[in-house]
Design goal:
By secondary structure, the chain is an alpha/beta fold. The protein has helices at about 25-35, 85-100, 120-130, 145-150, 165-180, 185-200, 210-215, 250-255, 290-300, 315-325, 365-370, 395-410; strands spanning about 15-20, 40, 50-55, 60, 75-80, 105-110, 205, 220-225, 265-270, 275, 310, 315, 330-335, 345-355, 355-360, 370-380, 415, 425. Strand 17 and strand 18 (about 425) form a beta hairpin. It binds inosinic acid (IMP).
Amino acid sequence: MKKTDSLKNWEGIACVIGIDWGDSGKGRLIDNLAARANIVARFNGGSNTGHTVKNNYGKFALHIIPSGIFNQKAICLIGRGVALDLESLVDDEMVQLKSAGVSWKNLRIDQQATIVMPWHKIRDGIREELRGGAKIGTTKRGVGPTYADRIERQGLRAKDLYEADFKDRLKEELDFQNKIFSLKLSFKEILETFTRYSKVIKPYVTQTIPLIKEAKSARKNILFEGAQAYFLDIDFGTYPFVTSSNTGVLGIWRSFELYPTEINHVIGITKAYMTRVGSGPMPSKIEGEAREIIIEKGGEIGTTSGRIRDPGWLDLVLLKAAVEANKVNHMAMTKIDVLTGFKTIKVVTGYKIGSKEAGYISGDASYLAKCQPVYQTLPGWQQDISSVRNFKDLPKNAQNYIKTVENFVSIKVDFIGVGPARGEEIYV
Ligand code: IMP
């Protein structure tokens, strides 16, 4: 793709990763870009993520299934780094797709993906309750405990469902979990449930890494769909208020053995403002009337958890850190229409701790909590922009807002979301 071409015509290997705290509309962008994809692949996270897709088939909240599933010609992969929540996959998402007449015959699940078991969800809840003051505010989808067991080399993987000794392994693990965590989970019930799940997913369980390698050799278009966002990354985010996977380009390598420099288009997505759900510092958090307006207009209530997301002004220090660390070369900005009507809009252009200038240090929430934002105030716009399809037709102040962001982070905004539905967007 030439530099001047639109992202709409992308080719090669692309990924969409959040460069904020998530909930930036990845689902709708993926749904869009997936039209050109031969493969769409999820590489991290589990059912803690909620990717909302609105298209000709209807409105969907996907958690595990890649948002590219609606392009029935694209193979959709669930990589081995995904915490495989079969309850969500089979009893929720497949039901949603079925009722809309969408086939998932193009789905492939990595045989090494670790399964989220009922005890993981329970442990997630117990852990949170016992955390005392510094609760993380997890989604209680069992994602942290699932990854913890994988690291402890105890996780059951998709392929294990079909092994002759599965029953024994399940029994051994269940006994352990019941004992250590004082649970009373029934072996019979869990066996029945997972036998049912295993039958449903069997046709789709395979090795996904060779599929990526073959597609790469054949120069097919591959699109990686990130979940959550960079500041929730287990290593580079605001630890401990993070999720338990690598949410940036590193996660792609871990799931698919595809080195980050092989990715042609690293698309960093953010909203035109930020939100954070769960605990942890957000220097640009908005209080008062503006907060209420953004929550209301932006529908800032979690797809997965139903929790209200805290809004903040766009933090350019953070965006720049995410862009540099992931070598982001395209930016996508969604929900700019939500900012319509504000007289002025602020962006963060620096931090101070006391009188000293500060920057972002990854992996340390307590450091970020000390950072005081330095704001630049920009003039807002009043005109409805939801029907605008060309950058030059945006109000001058909206153009100026986007240019200010571009100048600060030194890359272009190539996609602007001006409304939630398919088509309500500008490809620059
Ligand atoms: P967990 O991933 O459920 O363990 O939650 C850890 C933190 O990440 C909490 O603050 C969650 O609110 C946040 N989180 C997890 N998934 C998402 C997401 O998809 N969007 C936004 N925040 C998320």
